[in-house]
Design goal:
- With about 350 residues, the chain is an alpha/beta fold.
- The chain folds into two domains: about 220 residues, 3-Layer(aba) Sandwich (Aspartate Aminotransferase, domain 2); about 90 residues, Aspartate Aminotransferase, domain 1 (Alpha-Beta Complex).
- The strands form two sheets. Strands 1-7-6-5-4-2-3 form a seven-stranded mixed sheet, sandwiched between helices. A four-stranded antiparallel sheet has the order 8-9-11-10, covered by helices on one side.
Length: about 350
């Protein structure tokens, strides 16, 4: 049997939501000014301000790494460091771009559940003010985390209070911020600016967009130099209307919430079904749209031949399954049936 069209490898593997495709088609008419001086960008920024607050400054970029790196570079000095979780996308999956492009050193903190705490970052602040050491300038968290866990509002506030009391800024890598907000049952502003977040990399690609992310500043003063950082960082789109139109659609009629809610629900469904299979262990709380599981090593390649997914720690038999806005219940059931059959065979 060939590999299924929809697997569990990544929410990046999903296509584009039909409402977003329709918005792109509508934007693809006539001539408008470039570099964001167009009605589509104006509309998208207005929708962000409706949802996140009238005071926010919003800038559209090509991708998540670009959003993170340009945001961090714009709020940091050349001698600053960024504190992040050891497993953060910044630290593991951005090919050294924060260090090379933004010019900031990453201070990675062990975080067994993917989450930083005030206590875990305090030890990294002891040398602040010593000219022989880099100066921690930003705390960056990922919401939801790389392990599929979600910071509570109180946890974010505590981190923000700890950082701000010491003169640090707070950045959120929100590649899956919509999934986190849905998991918490709150509005996007409650999960970000209201908790003390200074800058947010707002994810769109993993939630139904073709491409594009947004950098949102809750403190307008911090955005003063960002347009230069975006241009130098090669993240300024000439035909920005195509990024902006997608975000306008995502923020209309709660599409962001509908997509994230469905992805989260499919993750819960999958986790609930595989927990019933002897020999399969779900190893982290399933709080957004990621399931991490441990399987017998010989089973993994058999499953991957029909449903693609990534190993997480191959030596331990740990894998990651991601659900998306277009994951269907029958995808889950077919995958569960394959796991059951393969486990029963003792492959």
């Amino acid at each position: 049997m060939g590999i299924h069209i929809r697997g569990f490898g990544s929410d990046n593997h999903a296509g584009v939501h039909e409402e977003v495709m329709q918005a792109l088609s509508r934007a693809n008419v006539g001539h408008v000014h470039s570099y964001g001086d167009d009605p589509h960008t104006e509309e998208a920024v207005a929708k962000f301000r409706e949802i996140l607050g009238a005071e926010v400054e919003v800038f559209f970029v090509f991708n998540g790494t670009g959003a993170n790196v340009t945001a961090l570079g714009s709020i940091s000095q050349f001698y600053d460091a960024v504190i992040c979780a050891e497993g953060a996308h910044l630290n593991v999956d951005e090919c050294g771009a924060p260090e090379r492009v933004a010019g900031v050193k990453l201070l990675s903190v062990p975080a067994p559940d993917g989450k930083l705490t005030p206590e875990s970052i305090t030890a990294y602040l002891s040398g602040r003010g010593d000219e022989h050491q880099v100066r921690p300038g930003v705390v960056s968290i990922t919401q939801s985390t790389e392990l599929g866990t979600v910071y509570t509002l109180d946890e974010i506030r505590a981190l923000a209070d700890c950082a701000h009391e010491r003169g640090l800024r707070v950045h959120v890598d929100g590649a899956r911020i919509a999934n986190a907000a849905v998991s918490l049952g709150v509005e996007l502003r409650q999960a970000t600016g209201d908790c003390g977040v200074d800058v947010l990399s707002f994810g769109g690609t993993k939630n139904g967009l073709m491409w594009g992310e947004a950098v949102v500043f809750f403190n307008a003063e911090l955005a003063t130099h960002y347009r230069y950082a975006r241009k130098q960082g090669m993240q300024l789109a000439s035909k920005m209307r195509y990024v902006a139109a997608q975000f306008a659609a995502l923020l209309t009629d709660d599409l962001w919430r509908r997509n994230a809610r469905h992805a989260n629900a499919m993750a819960q469904h999958l986790a609930g079904r595989v927990r019933q299979i002897p020999g399969v262990e779900v190893i982290y709380p399933v709080e957004a749209n990621a399931i991490f599981a441990r399987l017998p090593l010989p089973v993994i390649p058999v499953l991957q031949r029909e449903f693609f997914f990534y190993p997480w720690d191959a030596a331990k038999g740990e894998v990651r399954w991601m659900t998306s806005f277009d994951t269907e219940a029958y995808d889950v059931e077919a995958f569960v049936a394959l796991i059951e059959t393969t486990m029963a065979k003792g492959t």
